[in-house]
Amino acid sequence: MRKPSDESVVQSGASLSQQLSQRLRRQPIRRLKMSMPEAGVLVALTDHPQDPQVVLTRRASQLSSHAGEVAFPGGKRDPEDADLLATALRESHEEIDLAPDRVEVVGPLGQVVSKHGFLVSPFLGVISDQQPLTPNLDELESLFKVPLSFLLDRHHFQMETLSFEGRSIRMPRYDYQGYVIWGLSAFILVEMLNQGFDADLPLELRPESRR
């Protein structure tokens, strides 16, 4: 499914959500047995027939955590959330005005641990390419979309060294129109590209996955 420069990212014959669902079902989904606060995030792809886009946000500068960072819509689980998918959908509704019934949920991605000590569960979903989205300016500075063709192009892919729990790890990074996609969000993004689109991008295991 990896995209040559003159071909569509999406294969013909099945919808994007069907293709992704089939691929994810064939791969083990990482689950971490850790006792810590939980969060859910939504990795939303638009259903453009040739070049879907990934929805991302930049957090508002006045927030107490992750201020100014690029992130997926999502946040901390509330007691009333039925599960972490409900968390991801509720937070996406609050942050970018994306109603839960406008998301075709594909399934879960591998769990990861954030630098602030949250066990993060990402969920992959598909939305209409025509779906209007509006950032909640109390929480977000902006929202933006990145074409899959850009992300699958190795010329745009970078690796950088970060410190995590006293260890040095190499993490992916993208620079897109003034936005820096790095850290946890970049890891989730690249893992999704590898699992869903055969991107074959280099990705090191995070420390929590080695325990």
From TrEMBL:
One of its GO terms (molecular function) is coenzyme A diphosphatase activity. Its cofactor is Mn(2+); Mg(2+). The keyword Hydrolase applies. InterPro entries: CoAse, NUDIX_hydrolase-like_dom_sf, NUDIX_hydrolase_dom. Residues 11-22 have a biased composition (Low complexity). SUPFAM superfamilies: Nudix. Keywords: Hydrolase, Magnesium, Manganese, Metal-binding. The keyword Hydrolase applies. Residues 1-22 are annotated as: Disordered. Residues 36-168 form the Nudix hydrolase domain. This is CoA pyrophosphatase. It comes from Motiliproteus coralliicola.
